[in-house]
Write a structure and sequence with these properties.
Radius of gyration: 16 Å
Strand content: 25-35%
Helix content: 25-40%
Largest sheet: 7 strands, mixed
Order of helices and strands: EHEEHEEEEHHH
Distance between the termini: 45 Å
Mean pLDDT: 90
Number of strands: 7
Shape: globular
Structural class: alpha/beta
């Protein structure tokens, strides 16, 4: 099984849209190949490992229960892999994650910040990298780069 950290919620005004998107992603995952590890980000930017009812993701009720705080740590040596830790009963324990799938919209999700954090921590992720994400969120920069490449 491949453990997929599905990152959802977030600080942007598109928080609720992210919940709906995550619900769709969870429903579409092949449960024979992938095991979802749900990482919800509340509107204040705190990260949590959610282990409750999957139906509560889309409604936002996930924030009310079954959550453990989560942190990301960088690897401490060039070959060391960092990753996700959750705080359970006052102890940090590693969350087994093979790849992260950010299902975040807007600021703090699509703008390269989460992608950069995952890269610093050595966590492989799905989707655009830091630069592409940042440039695409900055419409002025996107238009200038396109114009410089001869695209109207």
């Amino acid at each position: 099984m491949i453990n997929v950290a599905i990152l959802f919620g977030g600080i942007s005004t598109e928080h609720d849209i992210s919940l709906k998107s995550a619900d769709n992603v969870i429903a579409a995952l092949d449960s024979k190949r992938f095991c979802p590890v749900l990482i919800g980000i509340d509107r204040n930017g705190s990260w949590f490992h959610y282990t409750g009812d999957l139906a509560d993701v889309v409604t936002g009720a996930w924030e009310e229960h079954d959550c453990a705080p989560v942190v990301l740590i960088p690897g401490s040596a060039p070959d060391a892999r960092g990753g996700f830790l959750e705080l359970v009963d006052g102890e940090f324990r590693e969350l087994e994650v093979d790849v992260a799938l950010p299902v975040l919209h807007g600021q703090g999700g699509e703008d390269g910040t989460v992608q950069g954090t995952l890269e610093v921590c050595g966590v492989p992720y799905v989707g655009c990298g830091v630069l592409a994400s940042a440039v695409c969120m900055d419409k002025d920069a996107s238009h200038r780069l396109a114009a410089a490449a001869g695209v109207r």
